[in-house]
Amino acid sequence: MMTKITASLVLYKNNPDMVRKAVLSAMNTPLKINLCIVDNSPSPDLEPIFKDLEDVDYYYNNGDNVGFGKAHNIAISRCGVSDYHLVLNPDIYFDENVIPELIDYLEINQEVGLIQPKIFFPSGETQYLCKRYPTILALFARRFVPKPLHFLLKSYLDSYEMRDMGYDKIAEVLYLSGCFMLFRKKYLDEIGRFDENIFLHFEDADITWRMAKKYKTVFYPDVHIFHHWARGSHNSLKQTIITIQSAIYFFNKHGWKLF
Q1: For residues 134 and 145, what is the distance between their CA atoms, to the nearest angstrom?
Q2: CATH number of the structural domain spanning residue 83
Q3: Which of 93, 91, 58, 51 is nearest to 74 (CA)?
Q4: CB 176 within 8 Å of CB 216
Q5: What residues does 225 pair with on adjacent strands?
Q6: What is the 8-class DSSP label of residue 229?
Q7: Tens-digit pLDDT profile for residues 142-169
Q8: How many domains does the chain have?
Q9: Within a 10 A sphere around the Cβ of 30, how many other Cβ atoms?
Q10: Please, which residues have CB within 8 angstroms of residue 232's CB and are 6 or more apart in sequence?
Q11: What is the DSSP letter of 131?
């Protein structure tokens, strides 16, 4: 029986060229993928990107920005039944071998509920997006301590970003980035999908942590993707407030850790 793969992508006023590249990365894989897109943007300006693409379901959310997790849940529901579900960001791209190799690993390792490949900047520099359990000190330092002073906490922040593992071997990770998350769908349904009380930020920490309580959550560096990533919250007061609210919710739900 053919493996059924679905994917979800949430949009909000994104760069059209980046979105197109992300979508084509998923659609050009040798495996058939049904992609469901929820557009939270104020207007459906991005819809023409998908006009000529098969197996793509575009849904404009009538200008209602419901947040990252809730929009992905809408998309997941629209996708229907599948064996695996891929959560994508609109600012990534990757080669056609990535998804098949990750699926092969999941087929062999039935105890794994969530997997993520290695992630690079477009320049080829590694993004250290695997993290240990969030702490107040780590979050405060990453957001409010000026970059030139990060050397004072370098060993601590390096540990938080799991740099000690070298990012060159398969490892279990309790906090994987939301930019590319490949789930075993029945396990995702079992743990309850994304927490819709989180508008943005820490929804990936929450869902990884919940999955890790029952199944393995794995970093798999043998394949990689590219990610045009920037910390938007560092440049916006509104985003900073949203991040703090999400962090408080996460800590209240899962437990506070100072350092």
Answers
A1: 16
A2: 3.90.550.10
A3: 58
A4: no
A5: 94, 119
A6: -
A7: 999 998 999 999 999 999 999 999 999 9
A8: 1
A9: 9
A10: 239
A11: B
Question: What CA–CA distance (Å, rounded) separates 56 from 138?
Answer: 39
At 148, list the tokens. 């030139």
> Which residues constitute the domain of residue 243?
5-254
Which of 11-15, 50-54, 65-69, 219-223 has the weakest average pLDDT?
A: 50-54
Q: Is residue 223 part of a domain?
A: yes
pLDDT, tens digit, for every residue of 13-64? 999 999 999 999 999 999 999 999 999 999 999 999 999 899 999 999 999 9
Question: In the numeric block, which tokens belong to residue 65?
Answer: 């920005």
pLDDT tens column, 87-120: 999 999 999 999 999 999 999 999 999 999 999 9
**Token pair 């009380």 in the structure block, residue:** 197
CB 211, CB 157: distance < 8 Å: no
The string of DSSP codes covering 152-181 is GGHHHHHHHTTGGGTT-S-EE-SB--TTEE
